[in-house]
Design a protein that fits this description.
Layout lengths: L1 H13 L27 H9 L6 H4 L7 E2 L5 E5 L4 H6 L6 H12 L8 E4 L13 H18 L3 E5 L1 H8 L5 H4 L3 E4 L2 E6 L2 H6 L4 H19 L1
Parallel strand pairs: 2-3, 2-4, 4-6
Antiparallel strand pairs: 1-3, 5-6
Bound molecules: uracil.
Uracil binds next to loops.
Length: 223
């Protein structure tokens, strides 16, 4: 891929080895998003996401949705992808599901400002379809860098897409929720997506017990 090839050349150049290429094989200047996100700080990462053209969603988005909240949060909330309202405003979880997420956070003594909220995808899939695996893969380095920068005590994956994508699993949410998982040594709890809870309010009590589990694990991992 262009990324790997560019990186190999960058390494060779850094080692002082001249790389001679036929004129026609020289790539145009790499877009900012082609560079590795691994070493980026918040500002550079935000700019990189805003300029990203790694997948076709860049052609249909209005705004990228980077994420919001406390950059040193104990809690990282990971959702699926921006919807129409989020795409318009450039902020995650601002629709009806977002209001319920705010209430869930309030119930555990947290808020939109105390946690960090991000999504698997930074751009809205047209008609709110599920993210394609290729889109999630292209977007993953941004989320990985956000996880590394926030260094949360607990990750809360809300909904099937977030849970399956983060954990590389195809289990249904009903089987993943209610227990502790692990991502890079950080405890991770799966719960229902607030949009699902709006449709199925009888499941809210299960989500509450997931939040209680996550609260306990966050306290343990802070100790
Ligand atoms: N649903 C999500 O998963 N994320 C958002 O940002 C909004 C709705």
């Amino acid at each position: 891929m262009m990324h790997a090839d560019y990186q190999r050349r960058a390494y060779l150049q850094a080692m002082g080895i001249d790389v001679w290429l036929p004129r026609e094989s020289v790539d145009p200047e790499p877009a900012a998003d082609v560079q590795s996100a691994d070493a980026m700080g918040w500002g550079e990462l935000r700019d990189c996401v805003a300029a990203c053209t790694r997948c076709d969603l860049s052609q249909t988005r209005t705004n990228t949705v980077f994420g919001v909240g406390n950059p040193n949060a104990d809690w990282l909330i990971v959702g699926e992808a921006p919807g129409a309202e989020e795409d318009r405003r450039g902020e995650p979880f601002v629709g009806r599901a977002g209001k319920l997420l705010d209430e869930m956070l309030r119930a555990i003594g947290q808020s939109r400002d105390s946690v960090f909220i991000a999504n698997i995808l930074k751009c809205r899939p047209p008609n709110n379809r599920d993210p394609k695996p290729s889109e999630s893969a292209e977007c993953r380095p941004y989320l990985e860098r956000q996880i590394a920068l926030v260094q949360p005590k607990i990750i809360l994956a809300v909904g099937r897409i977030a849970a399956q994508s983060l954990l590389g699993s195809d289990e249904p949410v009903g089987r993943m929720r209610g227990r502790q998982h692990d991502l890079h040594g950080i405890p991770l709890v799966v719960t229902y997506h607030p949009a699902y809870l709006l449709r199925s309010p009888s499941q809210k009590s299960k989500s509450w017990s997931d939040l209680c589990l996550a609260t306990r694990l966050a306290a343990e991992s802070a100790a």
